[in-house]
Specification:
alpha+beta; elongated; single chain; Arc Repressor Mutant, subunit A; Chorismate lyase
Length: 257
Amino acid sequence: MGTPMYRQIADDLRAMIESEELAPGQQLQTEIELRDQYGASRNTVRDAIKWLTTLGLVETRPGQGTFVVKKLDPFVTTLTRKEGEVAEGGQSTSYLSKVGHSLTPSTSAVRVEIQPAPEHVVTRLAIDPDTEVISRHEQRHIGRTPYSLQTSFYPVEFADRGADRLRSSKNIEEGAVQYLREKLGIKQVGYRDWITVRVPNLIEADFFKVPTDGRIAMYETFRIAYDGNGNPMRLTVTVLPADRNQLIVNVGDVPDL
């Protein structure tokens, strides 16, 4: 059995994309033009476009047409820390390709909420279901590219005991780990990362400018920080789109990348 016509069209267009005869961001010919060029039916051309969309090579913008997807140079995030280093909610990030790039990270103003603990926070912080928590939410960019959403959760009790800057939308310049150690004597001694993969919700799709159909998955990391008594002291949830992020975990004595 021969190759279906829609695959022949898709393979043709794919070769043009991979050779950059069709450059990133360039618009494909219209559906009518492709039908005329290949002598194919409307449904055949549409199936070819759907196939390329599934492969992540093109995207269709309502009312505009179909465009070659701009490939992003991935950010590489190292989740682990070397011995003796203190880990905050964030991680160490660099570009996959070091050539011609400089990191210009930026973070939005912190949005602070006091709320009843959501179920996933209750479970991971091992707190009572009616406990209130402080959430500190940030949007993060590298250059102009949105690369992560991050929310850290703390028991309101910490602020009531004197760590009142957790309630402020101002950035904690020295980092929450050091602040809690100095203010309350709570020392972070370790953390556990729990990583899941899922489709984006509507807020994430809008921020990262990705489709909502799951073609681009979200990494979601749950970092649970522990004090010297083995008690959870903070939960940081970070969402990173898979089209621009890769994650690294180092174990033992390994060289820097």
